[in-house]
TrEMBL record:
This is Methionine import ATP-binding protein MetN. Transmembrane segments: none annotated. It comes from the Bacteria. It comes from Saltatorellus ferox. One of its GO terms (molecular function) is ATP hydrolysis activity. Residues 13-249 form the ABC transporter domain. Its EC number is 3.6.3.-. Keywords: ATP-binding, Hydrolase, Nucleotide-binding, Transport. It is an enzyme of class 3 (hydrolase). InterPro entries: AAA+_ATPase (IPR003593), ABC_transporter-like_ATP-bd (IPR003439), ABC_transporter-like_CS (IPR017871), P-loop_NTPase (IPR027417). PANTHER family: PROTEIN TRIGALACTOSYLDIACYLGLYCEROL 3, CHLOROPLASTIC. The lineage of its organism: Bacteria, Pseudomonadati, Planctomycetota, Planctomycetia, Planctomycetia incertae sedis. SMART domains: AAA. Pfam families: ABC_tran.
């Protein structure tokens, strides 16, 4: 594997020789990588290579068969239910399909995580909602229902909701899915803006190279159940590894 070692001890997410199978289907076969604090790491790989499975280990929705999945130095599978709940409160998760509740307004959707996880007053919650809607450039969307807004706006609301609790870690699962190129571009710029302003550590599962190029500091290529390549984004997009060249196609080498 092409490996990048961080000089910093401040590793927020660490996969160490993680194996995961479903029945006789081996998906992760010794995957190892690290994400230092504040870094945005992309996860790329063919369909079914285990990108979403990897993300779900970080949030404790899946447990590895062996190996360690550490978040801030603690092995996630060893956490108690209570500790896991606390960890999840500090994570933002951006789903493929915004996952908004249709009968609640945008503002009510954003309020939910705060009502569930904090003791903030109504006016403090309102202030936070206004701040996050402004951050994702839709300051006037609060009173709208999800059915009244476009796919791109839904994605922005999904981002605002993931950010509402000021998470230390953000997990993005195909943030460009279902968006036309122009809207995808604006979402990617927004994700980069969030990374620069918010300094959260992030993992991004995405197929589109434009997203990876705009948003990610480094990229891991999953192949054969392992992190086959791990490089800075610019190097990743000028691949030398044969499997990665094949995956990205000639377009990337000319990037
Ligand atoms: N809970 C589960 N039970 C059984 N099989 C599962 C489960 N979750 C994932 N899989 C299988 O693991 C494999 C990897 O799934 P995953 O969703 O991680 O792929 P992916 O790399 O994200 O692919 P895509 O790019 O197509 O979304 C797939 O074959 C999937 O069917």
């Amino acid at each position: 594997m092409t490996d990048l070692k961080s000089s910093s001890e401040d590793i927020i997410i660490r996969f160490k020789d993680v194996y995961k199978s479903f029945g006789r289907h081996d998906i992760l076969k010794g995957i190892s990588f690290e994400v230092p604090r504040g870094q945005v790491l992309g996860l790329m790989g063919g369909s079914g290579t285990g990108k979403s499975v990897t993300l779900r280990h970080v949030i404790g929705l899946l447990k590895p068969d062996s190996g360690r999945v550490e978040v801030e130095g603690r092995n996630v599978p060893d956490l108690t239910k209570h500790e896991l709940a606390d960890l999840r409160k500090r994570m933002g998760y951006v789903f493929q399909e915004g996952a908004l509740i249709n009968w609640l307004t945008v503002a009510e959707n954003l309020a939910l995580p705060l009502q569930e996880n904090t003791k903030l007053s109504k006016s403090e919650i309102d202030d936070l909602i206004a701040e996050k809607l402004k951050m994702v450039h839709i300051p006037d969307a609060g009173e709208k229902l999800p059915s009244e807004i476009s796919g791109g706006m839904k994605k922005r609301v999904g981002l605002a909701r993931a950010l509402i609790t000021d998470p230390d870690i953000i997990l993005y699962d195909e943030p460009n899915a279902g968006l036309d190129p122009q809207i995808a571009r604006s979402i990617n710029e927004l994700m980069r803006e969030i990374a620069d302003q918010h300094h959260a550590t992030a993992l991004v599962v995405e197929h589109r190279l434009e997203c990876i190029e705009t948003v990610c500091d480094e990229v891991v290529f999953l192949y054969g159940g392992k992190a086959l390549v791990h490089e800075k984004t610019a190097d990743f997009l000028r691949p030398t590894h044969p499997q990665l060249i094949e995956f990205l196609g000639p377009e990337a080498r000319n990037a």
